[in-house]
Amino acid sequence: MYNLELDKAVEEIKKSNAKTVCIQLPDGLKPKAKEIQEEIELKTDAIVFIWAGSCYGACDVPKLDVDLLIQWGHSEWK
Q: Is 25 a domain residue?
């Protein structure tokens, strides 16, 4: 079971007043994409897009016209 820390994502979206948000997930977390999208949209005014392409870490950033990009990974970021 992963702790996706959605409260931190919601807090950052609100803090930055982001209206369009892209979530980027590694393959192992992609089955949770709809759940993540729904919770974020429920708790913010943002429209959330799910990036279905690759996600091989911080160097694999899609070039999109969104206010905020949020990446999740399998390991805790310290």
A: yes
CATH number, residue 13:
3.40.50.11840
- 0.85 exceeded by the pTM? no
Which residues make Cβ contacts (< 8 Å) with residue 52, sequence separation at least 6? Answer: 30
Token couple for 65: 């016209």
- Work out how many domains the chain is built from and give that number: 1
Name the residue range of residue 32's domain.
Answer: 6-71
Extract the tokens encoding 37.
Answer: 């999208």
| Rounded Cα–Cα distance for residues 43 and 39 (Å) | 6
Q: Which residues of the chain have pLDDT under 50?
A: none
Q: How far apart, in whole angstroms, are the C-alpha atoms of residue 25 and residue 6? A: 13
